[in-house]
Amino acid sequence: MSFVEEARWFQAPPAQDPSAPVAPGHVTLVGAGPGDPELLTVRALRALQGARMVLYDHLVSREVLQYVDPAAELVYVGKQSSQHTLPQESIIDLMLRLARSGRSLVRLKGGDCFIFGRGGEEVLALAEHGIPYDVVPGITAAQAAGACAGIALTHREHAGTLVLATGHLCGRDEVALDWQALARPRQTLVIYMGIATLALICRELQAHGLPGGTPAALVERASLAQQRCVTGTLAGLPALAQQHDVRAPALIVIGEVVALQPQILRGMAVPAQAG
Ligand code: SAH
Predict the structure, then answer these.
(1) pLDDT tens digits along 216-258
(2) Hey, which of 59, 62, 166, 228 would you mutate to test ligand 1's pocket, going by the most ligand atoms within 8 Å of its Cβ?
(3) 117-121, 232-236, 270-274: which range is least confident on average?
(4) Where does the record place the Tetrapyrrole methylase domain (predicted)?
(5) Rg of the Cα trace of the chain?
(6) Of the chain's two ends, which shows fewer C-beta atoms within 10 Å, N or C?
(7) Is the CB of 250 under 6 A from ligand 1?
(8) Nearest-angstrom CA–CA distance, 19 and 81
(9) In which band, very low, low, confident or very high, does the pLDDT at 113 lie, cut at 50, 70 and 90?
(10) CA of residue 88 to ligand 1 center, whole Å
């Protein structure tokens, strides 16, 4: 497997001789799922095995990358919330340059590309520049956290709505989450990228009417061998996170459905996990 260093792919093929136009390559956006390669779709697996070049993000697990053809070029384009290996615009620019030079590639992203994955921005850019593409869905982290941690996200006696929200920018003035909507009863709320702003999230939800005693969980590295889940109440969640040193990638799950977890886990055989 050849790992391509950033520096090298910044020297991506220059524009070809304009007198010899090249047909653009095809870009396949693939959702890699939450980490356990067993949770790749068959289509995603085929795309990985057939790819000659793969641009992948921070959240794509090592276990998943093992399914890429060893002869393919693997390009890490990073992206941790605080530490962007490449800004999003540069990732898009690189993809466009490679495709325009005739290279077909797989753009591999954690979970599902269109759920907090900025896949929307990437396909819009491809569409605008006439680059052919397709999108392979992936299992999003919320689904994995539900199934792997024993949280029935929409158990109908407890939740009629499932909301996926991002906590990424919620501490900044320019992005105000609709706290009123997030604090509704009979709803399960799953918050992505919320660990850094957990205290603020819990405070705002309570200020907007969600009882502090609402069952809540933090699910770290869902589906992987290192998966951890801690449960408590909305009010107690920040202390719990500190006590257990919960770190990204992790989800916050809030709602009455969390209270069913012990019953659900009791009957669940230990799942085979990625190794
Ligand atoms: N497109 C991805 C989400 C990307 S945003 C998806 O559909 O899952 C990144 C955030 O997703 C992380 O900060 C974390 O909140 C969540 N996340 C991704 N993988 C996760 C995992 N295995 N376990 C828990 N949370 C995860």
Answers:
(1) 999 999 999 999 999 999 999 999 999 999 999 999 999 999 9
(2) 59
(3) 270-274
(4) 27-237
(5) 20
(6) C
(7) yes
(8) 42
(9) very high
(10) 17
Ligand 1 and 167: CB distance under 6 A: no
Cβ contact 65:110 at 8 Å: no
Closest CA to 211 of 244, 237, 229: 237
- Does the annotation mark 79 as catalytic? yes
Task: Of 19-33, 42-56, 84-98, 260-274, give the lowest mean pLDDT range.
Answer: 260-274
The CB-based long-range contact list for 174-183 (8 Å cut-off, 24+ gap) reads 177/204, 179/204, 179/205, 179/207, 179/208, 180/208, 180/209, 182/208, 182/210, 183/208, 183/209, 183/210
Q: List domains and CATH numbers for the chain.
A: 2-136 (3.40.1010.10), 141-266 (3.30.950.10)
Over the stretch 54-63, which tens digit does the pLDDT of each residue have? 999 999 999 9
Ligand 1 centroid from CA 164, angstroms = 11
Q: Is the minimum distance from the CB of 115 to ligand 1 under 6 angstroms?
A: yes
